[in-house]
Design a protein that fits this description.
The protein has about 110 residues and is mainly alpha-helical. About 50% of the residues lie in helices and about 10% in strands.
């Protein structure tokens, strides 16, 4: 999903992007200078895309502080028949998740 999100950001015209994930291994692999094996070709694809004319920063967040993102991902999974779901405004269902994320990240 990281690659797909980056492609959407690139083709939408965003040129400064911060990617946060709760997968520490993904962040480590992407930020590593070592060449990924062919089994991890998606890592090489992400790196190649990030080498375009834009700034992409990767970071890890704790799963407990990522409720809003998880909630939005579940909304997208419920819309499985489309390739991309774009929210112009936050869905009402995530308001409490955002609040919970803010509280847990400040602890």
């Amino acid at each position: 999903m990281l690659l797909e999100g980056l492609l959407v950001a690139w083709f939408t015209g965003f040129r400064k992007v911060i990617v946060e994930t709760d997968c520490a291994h993904a962040v480590t692999c992407i930020n590593s200078s070592l060449k990924a094996s062919s089994a991890l070709g998606v890592i090489n694809n992400i790196r190649e895309l990030c080498n375009q004319q834009w700034k992409v920063q990767f970071g890890q967040v704790q799963r407990e502080a990522n409720c809003a993102t998880d909630n939005m991902a579940n909304l997208v999974v419920a819309s499985w028949y489309v390739d991309v779901v774009r929210f112009n405004l936050p869905p009402r269902s995530i308001i409490f998740a955002v609040r919970d994320d803010l509280i847990s990240s400040s602890l």
